[in-house]
Amino acid sequence: MTQPTLIRRDHRQSALTLAAAGVPVLPLRAGKRPVGNCPACTGNACGGRPNMKVAGPCQCPRPCHGWAAATTNPAVLQSPAWAEAWREAHAVAYHPGGARLTVVDLDNADAIAWARRTLPATRTVPTTRGEHWIYLGAMQSANAVRPNVDIKSCMQYARWLGPGTGTMAVLPDAVRALVVKEPSPVRAAPLGVAAPVPVGGGECRHRTPAYLERGITMAEQRITEARSAVHATVYRTFLAVLSAHGRCGCLTDSHVARLFAAAQAKGEGPRHCADAWANARTALGI
What we know:
Blueprint: H1 3-20, E1 25-29, E2 33-34, H2 74-77, H3 80-88, E3 91-94, E4 101-106, H4 109-118, E5 123-126, E6 131-136, E7 142-146, E8 149-152, E9 158-159, E10 169-170, H5 173-176, H6 185-188, H7 209-224, H8 230-245, H9 253-265, H10 270-284
Parallel strand pairs: 6-10
Antiparallel strand pairs: 1-2, 1-3, 3-9, 4-6, 4-8, 5-6, 7-8
Helix pairs in contact: 7-8, 7-9, 8-10
């Protein structure tokens, strides 16, 4: 038995173990790069959705389309079509958003020091240059949210480096806010969320942190638990959120990003999310 074969089997077995736990996985080549698309899919010739916005953009049996190839199906992972990819694999990657996780990728000691001062403690995994901090919950991915800090969750992959240590914390707003450039009701205005002064000068009840947080959390859960009719569920959930909170100015870009991230983790593309949001606003006359 040759060493390359041993490496392939070790990586494939790790992938199967992760898949059994509900973590979508894929093989990585040298340089932490996903397996390249097959000739039939090069240049989107297969007719898959542009920019890989939705997992599973075509019916190609090979591990094509980067992060969108990640799967929990053991039959696919062990199929002959994936055998060559495992022979070439140097590591295993996973799709954090598909597992309802978010990875805060800290690339050096300064970034780690910042995280320790700023973010809630959670499960940590050592990397070559720094650490991965892993939180329970999915969100929008973004690179360079601050020096040497990337967010890997929806529509992104992260290298599997082991289970890590520590108790995994729920994804905090401090991490979600990193991808929002100017989180304020003013920036939410293009989405149709106005901020009128409540009649009589009283405080808007929706601004109560617990009330609003409970509403957003319930909306995320409703989308996440959808087993069918995801499009309709996303629209109805957006409609409910806007009906309760859309006229008082309490929604910010951070809240909207959370809803969009939950929808995208279920396979909805950014455009579908934007359309559903706009349609819900129109239906309510906002």
